[in-house]
Specification:
Two copies of one chain form a homodimer.
Chain A lengths: L1 E3 L2 E9 L2 E4 L1 H13 L2 H8 L3 H14 L5 E6 L2 E7 L1 H29 L12 H6 L1
Antiparallel strand pairs in A: 1-2, 2-3, 4-5
Helix pairs in contact in A: 1-2, 2-3
Chain lengths: 131, 131
Amino acid sequence: MVKLGPLKLKAQLFCDGVNAMGPGKADLLEAIEREGSISGAGRAMGMSYRRTWLLVDAMNRCWHERLVETIAGGGHERGARVTPFGREVLAGYRALERHLAHAAEEETRRLTALMRDTPLPPPGRSMEHAA
Amino acid sequence: MVKLGPLKLKAQLFCDGVNAMGPGKADLLEAIEREGSISGAGRAMGMSYRRTWLLVDAMNRCWHERLVETIAGGGHERGARVTPFGREVLAGYRALERHLAHAAEEETRRLTALMRDTPLPPPGRSMEHAA
């Protein structure tokens, strides 16, 4: 999700109906790089291990190579890292986001000029205050 | 929501935290133009009258002028139409969507080249089949 003043932009890439890359998955890849494990990344993002693992698995099945590889050991995950291929996909997605934000600037400025700074209060609010 | 092959793009404009324009609201404005009433537009989009009315009300409170005006009569809504100002906002939003889709083309092509046509099956699937 890219924020540009009042504009929010969300770009998602689908592989035959499966979400292959989007704001959450890109953040997850960055968290795995930082934390060095799937469990650590999930904790840092407030997600269950199961959900985190499912997101990683979906990513790994959608691209020509794995984006994340795990180091198994003794039946437990001993760590994970983003592959060079994963870093390439991540960089391409972040470039797409930056490019979209830049492309949206002029039309966002034009639309924002037509928008109030704050919405009018919902109907009934003024009557409640008067009552 | 703009679709461009495997890419889905969603642009939303917020007025101090209130969603002022996005894919659903733009579709709703077009449905009101077509159907000539809020109730008809809601029916066409499979939404309750209450939900449809709340979306219209939020839009009308976020911009410098109303986007939709209703023709009241005998305690009932007799019809609704998109104001010239509403058509201006709608056209600006659709132009933003088109512009974003165009801007995304090259990076989407580059990322799509790294993506499979179909995801690999989830783990366990092949074992199930073998069992």
